[in-house]
Amino acid sequence: MSERASTAYHEGGEVVLKKAPASELDDAGYQMFCDAYRQREDVLTLVKQINQLIKVVQKHRGVSMGLLAGDSGFLENFESLQTQLEKRLATLECFARTTGGLLTDREKDNLHLAWLTIRQDWQNDNLSDNFELHTHLIEQLQSMLASLARQLGKPLAPDLEDAEPEGGADYPKLFKQIEMLNFVCRQVPDIIEQVAKVRGLSVYAASAGSVDFYSDRKLRFLLQCTREQGDKLRAQAERINEQLEGGLGAFKVLKELELKVHFLLNTVEQDVLSDSAIATSSQQFFSLATEIIDVYWRLVTEGLAQIRLWHEDDMEAWLKLPQ
Fold it and tell me: What is the β-pairing status of strands 14-21 and 3-11?
């Protein structure tokens, strides 16, 4: 007799399906599956909201660096980002309240505390404090993102994992899904954060007209890390592109983007770190880095859209399983 899911329990905020004989699959069994499916949708929604929040915090860090160095041209952007950040934090909390403990109260409290620490008396921050406070908030969000991604890497239902798929495609598809999750929830966000850090520190140096010791050391390390991560990202993108038989639209601009990344890093190296007068303006550094970061975020968005499609495919596959 084939087995189907009909009971469930909560484990760390996640709906976990147990198995029962097909004859016992009743309305409650279907409800259990629908609950698990809906929770995956909730996870995807939270991932999207966290990514949007990370993006705003990174921009807020960049314009804060410019303002702290005395460039008032960033003030209007700063005020807009300040409002966006508070709204997105509140929105994330509202979503989290309806998702059965996917984010803990402690995680939400820590986010609020981190933001309040950034916002309070920021005008009197020194560069390193402001930079590290923003970075700490981003690291908290990235940790939440990694935890949610792990949930998306599990089979939606146990009988989907056990079922013999047509052409043996389903089990490899789970591997593809795990690779995609690692790519869009860890690898791409990591390089985004490296470029965003370069943006903030180069904006500060250009606004101030020179680079201080802290920024110099940080930037040299970040340039090295970004180049290394870029090589790994390209190799993984090529692998995923082959698996998807045509890949994602954003993959097509990765080579062009790589040239822009090299241009940014070389400009920082030759202009900011060369002990000569900085010729590139803070606004130019901000715009170039932001253009690069936006393309990377587009890659994340398209990757998550593919994961959502696979999630919908799992629903169809479950409905077609023999009773």
Answer: antiparallel
